[in-house]
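seq:
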Amino acid sequence: RSVSRGLGDVYKRQIKEKLGTQREYAKALGYSEKTISKKLSNQTPFTQKDIEKSIKVLDLESADPYFFKK
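struct:
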């Protein structure tokens, strides 16, 4: 599996549904809003630790549909 280049609208909807704003998502992961913006726009990659935290914070069953392409 390779890391997906774009997280897409579905992932961004998850952020909005669970936390309300990108700012709150950034706080939950311990980043600035600017850093999260860069990660969401693929200017900076998500680390394995980011992915693991995202699964917990957003209550996802799996990272596969959001972070990996088959």
